[in-house]
Amino acid sequence: MAATVWHRTEPREVRPFFHALEAEQALEACGISLFEDEEIIRDNAFDLDEIDFKKLVPVVHLDIADAARWLPKGISKQDLELVLVARNSFLKRSEVVQSVS
Fold it and tell me: Which segments of 27-99 does DSSP mark as H helices, in order?
């Protein structure tokens, strides 16, 4: 009987983006309005009950710091994408609400 040979199935390793802290700080001035005619909040996570979730109308207010100040050499702003994800941890569901190049 021939021995089973193990081999790697994923195409390549995922490497961490070591400049994530600088990128996160570049987004500090951004905000989100959760409902129509609501004020802009700057939190990056919040909890909603079922009633509020049904009224949810998210609008992202982008104010990103100049990319030349925080992007490392070799990466341009065209290489990145900002993705807003709404997640319900109880139901273990998530949905991309908005994606911005």
Answer: 50-55, 67-70
- Amino acid of residue 24: E
Residue 81 falls inside a structural domain: yes
Number of domains making up the chain:
1
Residue 24 has pLDDT above 70, yes or no: yes
Q: For residue 46, what are its two tokens?
A: 């919040």
Global pTM reads: 0.57
Question: Which domain does 24 fall in, by range?
Answer: 20-100
Spatial distance between the Cα atoms of 11 and 7, rounded to a whole number of angstroms:
11
| Strand partners of residue 88 | 93
